[in-house]
Amino acid sequence: MSFCSGKHGCYHDLCVFFITLVLIVTATTAAEDPSTILSRFQQYLQINTAQPHPNYYEAAEFIISQAKLLSLESQTLEFVKGKPLILLKWPGNDPTLPSILLNSHTDVVPSEHHKWTHPPFSAHLDSTTGNIFARGSQDMKCVGLQYLEAIRKLKASGFRPMRTLYLSFLPDEEIGGNDGAGKFVDSDVFAKMNVGIVLDEGLASPTDNYRAFYGERSPWWLVVKAVGAPGHGAKLYDNTAMENLLKSIEIIRRFRAAQFDLVKAGQKAEGEVISVNMVFLKAGTPSPSGFVMNLQPSEAQAGFDIRVPPTADQASLERRIADEWAPASRNMTFEDEENAKAISLFEDVVHLNDAIEDEAKRMENLVKGIFAGNLFDLGSAQLAELFSRDGISFLASFQNLVPRPWVIDDLDTFITKWSKESWKKAVIFVDNSGADIILGILPFTRELLRHGTQVILAANDLPSINDVTYPELVEIISKLKDEQGKLVGVDTSNLLVANSGNDLPVIDLMGISQELAYLASDADLVILEGMGRGIETNLYAQFRCDSLKIGMVKHPEVVEFLGGRLYDCVFKYNEVLE
């Protein structure tokens, strides 16, 4: 992910920095004996940070001591007691530019001591081969120390970075990272860092060559559910939950095999195919001794980690999931984990907005939430998996939006109209699934409903890229409503969902569905959200009522056309005067 701005190109700067980093690490100078560098590495390796009882504090003391020697700023963050996170900072010449975060972790996996040639925390150096034997020598204490050694040599050469550089040494990565990275990226500290790119570990190299890894494929986390009538284990039934799930697993397995065959045959690289891996199976009725063995379960689930390259036909994959992998005809359903995680954050986002008493400031906050949500598009892998987990990156992105004034900024005019008079009916053409619709548009919609505006949400009938579909939107809203049919206390009787009549992100307003045309006939506000709907095709469209085009600029071609910055914001409001 990059929030690049200004005349210094982020990609160019980062490439130069990365190449410099590698060259500096691999080249030693006469200024320091290589054995001294190895000695520091061995000291770090000799600290036993193996799970499940890592010595985090000793590792933290070592890292902070090295930071002091390098005149780096340091702070210890302890979101969970006993799990310190060390954050180092090398200020850049231009602190307004997005920063670089070099990430590593201090913990290592357990080791079976009796299977080691040398004790795993001895950091034994073989003088013949130059190999060091230690747990963490590859995963990933070597990388953390390489960061520090690179900075040591860069500082000695007089180099000063243009951007601010951060180094993070995280706890608990080997057991999921929930208490380290998980809480770090949800913190105010991380939000204020304005991180443009994260460099992290890849795979160890068995040679003296360095390999760079990048995350280009979009992660889709899919949960397939099957239901069926429960029954005694001695009976035979058609279409049981387990039978239906196993059929789907076999269909998915065949798809996976076909993709893998392309890699094995050398026709495609691994990053060019859709990878599908089953990560969990869940079924059965628990008992004190394990599971009830004579009862057929009424529900069974399987989870899949799917990675989709940008060249794949995402709409085709979504149809395959709905029609083949989890068809309703076999009592199957599926759940997009992106939506599930955004739904889990919905009430928190709403409460944050409701806590703002000033209506103008609350509306500005809601608009910024739309931009923060609109950033997340499965067609452009915005963040590495760890830093987008649980939808947390939405909150950080909210803090790091391009500052106002935006490339087109009519927000003040919109708020002035809003503060004087509410619209009677608003039609909103929505964009992406996940954080965009759930954490951006729906809190904004809820605010309109609070002020008495009837809202029509218009969504495409068929999936295209990451667009939220009409059936999907109906399901999302039903999950967000409480038992009284309210959205966190707000009545939804004036909320309707309609089929837009279009199947593409670039929308043709001449071809909307008859249903939507009827519902929108007396609307006094039309909102087009997203780069395709609001900017690329309808930025200058004229309406007989008030209109708002809102979207984030995510393509360089659009940046050039508008004269703004990448990830700049467009908020174009046109008021029709009576």
Automatic annotation (TrEMBL):
<keyword id="KW-0862">Zinc</keyword>
<feature type="active site">
    <location>
        <position position="107"/>
    </location>
</feature>
<feature type="binding site">
    <location>
        <position position="201"/>
    </location>
    <ligand>
        <name>Zn(2+) 1</name>
    </ligand>
</feature>
<keyword id="KW-0378">Hydrolase</keyword>
<feature type="signal peptide">
    <location>
        <begin position="1"/>
        <end position="30"/>
    </location>
</feature>
<dbReference type="GO" id="GO:0005737">
    <property type="term" value="C:cytoplasm"/>
</dbReference>
<protein>
    <recommendedName>
        <fullName>N-acyl-aliphatic-L-amino acid amidohydrolase</fullName>
        <ecNumber>3.5.1.14</ecNumber>
    </recommendedName>
</protein>
<dbReference type="InterPro" id="IPR002933">
    <property type="entry name" value="Peptidase_M20"/>
</dbReference>
<dbReference type="InterPro" id="IPR010159">
    <property type="entry name" value="N-acyl_aa_amidohydrolase"/>
</dbReference>
<dbReference type="InterPro" id="IPR001261">
    <property type="entry name" value="ArgE/DapE_CS"/>
</dbReference>
<dbReference type="Pfam" id="PF01546">
    <property type="entry name" value="Peptidase_M20"/>
</dbReference>
<dbReference type="InterPro" id="IPR052083">
    <property type="entry name" value="Aminoacylase-1_M20A"/>
</dbReference>
<feature type="binding site">
    <location>
        <position position="105"/>
    </location>
    <ligand>
        <name>Zn(2+) 1</name>
    </ligand>
</feature>
<feature type="binding site">
    <location>
        <position position="139"/>
    </location>
    <ligand>
        <name>Zn(2+) 1</name>
    </ligand>
</feature>
<feature type="binding site">
    <location>
        <position position="174"/>
    </location>
    <ligand>
        <name>Zn(2+) 2</name>
    </ligand>
</feature>
<dbReference type="GO" id="GO:0046872">
    <property type="term" value="F:metal ion binding"/>
</dbReference>
<keyword id="KW-0963">Cytoplasm</keyword>
<keyword id="KW-0732">Signal</keyword>
<feature type="domain" description="Damage-control phosphatase ARMT1-like metal-binding">
    <location>
        <begin position="336"/>
        <end position="570"/>
    </location>
</feature>
<feature type="binding site">
    <location>
        <position position="139"/>
    </location>
    <ligand>
        <name>Zn(2+) 2</name>
    </ligand>
</feature>
<dbReference type="Pfam" id="PF01937">
    <property type="entry name" value="ARMT1-like_dom"/>
</dbReference>
<dbReference type="InterPro" id="IPR002791">
    <property type="entry name" value="ARMT1-like_metal-bd"/>
</dbReference>
<feature type="active site" description="Proton acceptor">
    <location>
        <position position="173"/>
    </location>
</feature>
<dbReference type="InterPro" id="IPR036075">
    <property type="entry name" value="ARMT-1-like_metal-bd_sf"/>
</dbReference>
<keyword id="KW-0479">Metal-binding</keyword>
<dbReference type="GO" id="GO:0004046">
    <property type="term" value="F:aminoacylase activity"/>
</dbReference>
